[in-house]
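2024-03-11 09:14:02 DEBUG pipeline.ingest accepted 1 chain
2024-03-11 09:14:02 DEBUG pipeline.ingest length=683
2024-03-11 09:14:03 DEBUG pipeline.predict start
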Amino acid sequence: MKFTDGMWMTRAGYTVESPGEIYEVKADGEGLTLFCPYVAVQHRGNTLDGGLLTVRITAGRKGTIAVRLTNHRGALDMMPRFPLDRGTDKPEAGEADGFWFLRSGELEARVFAGKSWRIEYRWRGRLLTAAGPKGMAHILDQRTGETYLRERLELSVGENIYGLGERFGPFVKNGQSIDLWNADGGTDSEQAYKNVPFFLSSRRYGVFVNSTGCVSYEIGSESATKTQFSVPGEEMEYFIFAGDTPKDVLTAYTALTGRAPELPEWSYGLWLSTSFTTDYDEKTVLSFVDGMIERKIPLSVFHFDCFWMKAFEWSSFLWDRDVFPDPEGLLEKLHQRGLKVCVWINPYIAQKSPIFEEGMQNGYFVKTGDGGIWQWDRWQAGMALVDFTNPAAVSWYQEKLAALVDMGVDCFKTDFGERIPTSDPFYGPKAAKFGVRWFDGSDPEGMHNYYTYLYNKTVFDLLEQKKGKGEACLFARSATACSQTLPLHWGGDCLSTYPSMAESLRGGLSLALSGFAYWSHDIGGFESGCTPDIYMRWTAFGLLSSHSRYHGNQEYKVPWLYGEEAVEVTRAFCKLKQRLVPYLMRLGREAAATGVPVLRPMLLEFPDDPVCLTLDRQYMLGDALLVAPVMSGDGTVDYYLPGGRWTHLFSGETRQGPGWFRETCGYDTLPLYLREGYKVLEE
């Protein structure tokens, strides 16, 4: 969100107040408190009739510093809160030669008070970034009365910013304006299903804005030399993390926000879906499964998408008996074939659903300000939204899922979680007129993004209760900060094109740098129009991700529909993934312990190689395997090998890096290189 008009002026309609000086600093056993009036105090009269920004700098974990900006402390704040583990480490705070300091392990904040004030953040003495005059600000929108708090941190020459959730635009975020607001926008857009208010810098620090609301970023886009972030309200808190490597930064960030648990072995195999709007019944499902078995293609999970339930009744959590007359029997047949079973769910309850009345009468749905149930017709006719701030609604929803687990369902795909109402007219005239009311009184603006955490936690907790730790697994589309603890996540509704393959990867790389350990995507693209060549190229890519799923919209995604060569390619890469499962499980254990993701942007493994800082068409699968998906019709792919000796996993050919290489690949291969000194396959 932009507030300035060029370098000198303020945009029309805004009042921007920045500290004129740091007037006073107080140190205590917990940290530093800075008192920063909005004018420079030349005489006593300057202490009257003006505001004052209070800045509190603390630390509870070594390598992490928290900064809280407060204008009016007594403002009503009903925002939901991320579940953070702040730690109990005591920082060192005091006054040195010419500055105040707070030290958290090797991370230090230096405060230079007075009229030429400045706050520096240093790691082992090295300057990371800094805040200064005209950066921090309290802002009033004169037209609406809304207030905001803003911070600006310095960008260094050549510094790159990454992360901010699953973003499909440029991998490096410099020059972008980004509002973190979950939306069902598809991949080919600036919108995102997974918005995370954390960015990672190539200078080996990260910044997390602790707000569940809409955090607005200007990454070198309003001030060309600053990262800017702002939130509505009267307070803002952000955290600075640092380390010797980018991995260290992710470790520090996930220590605060949580880490993914280990996932069951079966989750790493191939998932096959009915797809969305295709026609399917028991005969169709078994033909797909048996077709894979006959062709000796290893299959791990079968997924039933939306229409396992009756049309117009999502979600009822009841099988459509007209299509699946014996669901218990069908589930048993799939289990006998060695498969796990996944079914699609969402948090919306259609008016036609048999359980709608139950939810309405018991107060389990989100309401509008006049006391009525919030409803609209987008997605499902007359649908309501389960209110997961109500403990009774959580239990009710879990009871419906538990019945499915008892029937034989092993896991769930949690779709949606982004269409969460506020008073915006988009959510209907009643929401616009009366606003939205949550059971616990939470602010609707904060609940819009935060809802997905409550939704997926409800499902994941139920799976852990029923299946046990280490066996719980869900496929989630939407996410926010802390959602990495509720794995795993898939890449949304991509197009069946090579550019969409590339944007899907950019989304996955950005998500990995936002603290998410696991990631998947719709192999072949979600939307219709997948061709045999795209299918085969995407198969190689998808089976070399942490998790792998065939899924579409109007098209089945079984390989024989794309030709015999597609069958052979699918078989080969499925068998390769089977052999990689022990390696992937080792990476999963590492992710659970450290927060370092399974799928890794090149910069995580090679932070000292400047070429790797911008690579977004290749990645490391763990610490050992370099993958460069083929994203061209003629099979040509350009890729970069960092320094060292690399061995092609298929051909055994070796190459010496660093250097750029170009290959033209058949459908049965792609640049897949083993790093010298590493092992990924069992003998």
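2024-03-11 09:14:41 DEBUG pipeline.report The CA atoms of residues 370 and 604 lie 51 Å apart.
2024-03-11 09:14:41 DEBUG pipeline.predict end
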